[in-house]
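Q: Convert this sequence to structure tokens.
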Amino acid sequence: MPERAMLDVLLAGAAIALFALLVVASVVSMREGEPRAARRLAGLALVAPVPFFATAAMPAESGDLAGVILLAALSLAALVLVVPTGSKHRAERDIPTRRIDERDIMFSRARLEPESERFEAYYAERPENRKADDRFRAQPGLLERGSVYFDPFMFAAADASFETITALHAMVDGPVALERETADPGAISAFIKRWAIALGAVDAGITDLRDYHKYTTVGRGAEYGQPVRLDHRFAIALSVEMSKEMIDRAPRGPTVMESAHQYMDSGAIAVQLAQFIRNLGYPARAHIDGNYRVVCPLVARDAGLGEIGRMGLLMTPTLGPRVRLAVVTTDLPLTVDHREPEHSVLDFCTLCEKCADVCPSQSIARGPRREIDGALRWQIDSESCFTYWSKIGTDCARCMSACPYSHPDNPMHNLVRMAIRNSGLARRVALAADDYLYGRRPPPADVEEWMSVGTSG
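A:
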């Protein structure tokens, strides 16, 4: 075949392949409920082949040169997906030198009853927190009537999940079987992780339980104010997926429904795993919503489930921050997973700042990580964040819904994730593409009709 004819075939093939790829991406986006992205991808599908066919129509000499340049550029773009480049943000210096007192987290402070002995004692010890806490107490409160997005049905659904979690608190720990079973640590570790996934977890990992994983002092429940006593050797972390469709409605009621639902599901799995281990004759404790002795994101990171990103949440490889976590600690001999720090997440979070742009309360830090308690990290303004939650009645999740890592786990988005993981240039291109397709500040999706119960008269 003459050289020009071969070049024309290659140009036509590239144009058709690019057109087909963009059409498929448009259809996938429409199925994902992303009409803006679907329209823009369809437009690109019509425009992208034009340079290839225009080049094929050019006179021989100029057309040959332009065709070679165009195909070389396309090949170079494809190489960006697989050739590691631009890796500069290392997951280093990420071990804190100070443990957290659970009494200081916002969920604990929100439970303090004004004028109670516990209330007065806390603010006598932490007077610097009083002014900020008065601001959130002036708001209606999370899941309370009078909040901006109050809906009696959606909020009751969320409360039903949280109340179920409270019922699970009685099962986080318990008596250990007198007869102890023995098993190879590697085999039982694989069994536990695979069973967790069979029960509904997306991922599970195991790490040594370290001091900085543990709170110093209990901040909720009957043991409030007591030192955390947890001498287990190992920690099993698990994650469950939060529905993209529900989170896309953030900050309205569906997001808190989904948040509560997945706290409940992760808690149920953790409680089952802990009971299973106790049945084998080993102590085990589940750590679930409202009844923690450990900081779950730190445990999950060290168990290899992801990295902690700009918004302070665990960023998982395929779902980003769109997960809920639970942990089981135990003395059952296990094999720990080797954590492979993922620099690309930190690099992307440094570039992106999309979560900071969409945050209604401007609680998410901008700029690079800074050293806090001996570790390089980003720290959100938890007081302003929780005050906003107390105003609107939900746990917001605008940051989670806008995060480019939160897109569904499917081949189209996983191809982008692969490029982000491999290439610094691809991270910049992917961010620009995400802004173009979905918007720099993507608006919340409409609440689905089935959720709008309304009231009957």
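The beta strands are 203-208, 234-241, 284-287, 307-308, 314-315, 323-330, 370-372, 375-377.
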